[in-house]
Backbone:
């Protein structure tokens, strides 16, 4: 893919990170650095899908089924989101 | 330097003097690392140092040092952070494996994110006035260097969060 993400890729959470559901958000912690991250409702949905073993395309489909959003827009934004958190080294390819 | 032989509840004059000399450089260290927490990755001293105090002695150190810090003529804010950094270094150097706890809450609005630092020994609060168990109930993870991270309830803001679009759930 031109954006560097293969839709069939599956990701796992890197060892330095832990996460918890805190009310309506996911709070992710880099235990090594002490850096916290939070995701909103959709980010949480994608995070849970990806961390449960869904690939990028499956995650997009799940979001489109769950939320009122155009498939193209969802795919674009979710890929941006995943690229972002991969760049933060929260996720790695399996 | 070995001021105390064996574990003791009491703080001798020499121990108190040793602690007094630790405070200024530790305050400077806390000031230096406060804004660099995520890049420095604090390395707390190994509590295996030969000088020993008991946990009761650690309580006395905490009360005494807190009193000294509270009486200082200058205040910079973030008192809990300065106090915790100074204490965790001193107490660990005295042989007690105190844990530095860092809790953050109200993540939803980053500008209003609040935090607190406190110390525990074997999960027991060390001279702590804040109800940390209620404010920061979610244990996020323990760093093997002696730091434990906690989270409180999230807020409802939206500023500063990593987001994958703003859309509504289907009905």
Residues:
């Amino acid at each position: 893919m031109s954006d560097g993400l293969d839709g069939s890729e599956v990701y796992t959470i890197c060892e330095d990170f832990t996460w918890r559901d805190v009310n309506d958000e996911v709070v992710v912690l880099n235990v090594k650095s002490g850096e916290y991250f939070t995701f909103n409702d959709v980010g949480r949905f994608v995070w849970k899908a990806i961390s449960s073993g869904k690939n990028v395309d499956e995650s997009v489909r799940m979001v489109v089924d769950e939320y009122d959003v155009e498939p193209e827009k969802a795919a674009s934004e979710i890929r941006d989101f995943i690229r972002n958190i991969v760049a933060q080294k929260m996720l790695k390819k399996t | 330097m070995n001021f105390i032989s064996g574990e003791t509840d009491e703080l001798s004059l020499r121990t108190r003097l040793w602690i007094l000399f630790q405070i200024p450089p530790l305050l400077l260290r806390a000031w230096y690392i406060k804004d660099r927490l995520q890049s420095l990755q604090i390395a707390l001293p190994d509590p295996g140092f030969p000088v020993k105090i008991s946990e009761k002695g650690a309580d006395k150190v905490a009360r005494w040092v807190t009193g000294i810090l509270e009486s200082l003529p200058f205040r910079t804010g973030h008192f809990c952070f300065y106090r915790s950094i100074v204490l965790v270094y001193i107490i660990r150097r005295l042989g007690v494996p105190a844990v530095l706890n860092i809790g953050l809450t109200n993540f939803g609005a980053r500008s209003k994110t609040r935090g607190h630092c406190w110390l525990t020994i074997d999960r027991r609060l060390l001279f702590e006035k804040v109800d940390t168990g209620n404010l920061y109930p979610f244990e996020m993870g323990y760093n093997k260097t002696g730091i434990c991270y906690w989270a409180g309830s999230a807020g409802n803001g939206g500023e500063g969060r990593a987001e994958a679009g703003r859309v509504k759930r289907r009905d």
About this structure: The interface with chain B takes residues 18, 20, 22-25, 27, 29-43, 45-46, 63, 65-69, 73-74, 77-78, 80-81, 84-85 of chain A (CB under 8 Å).
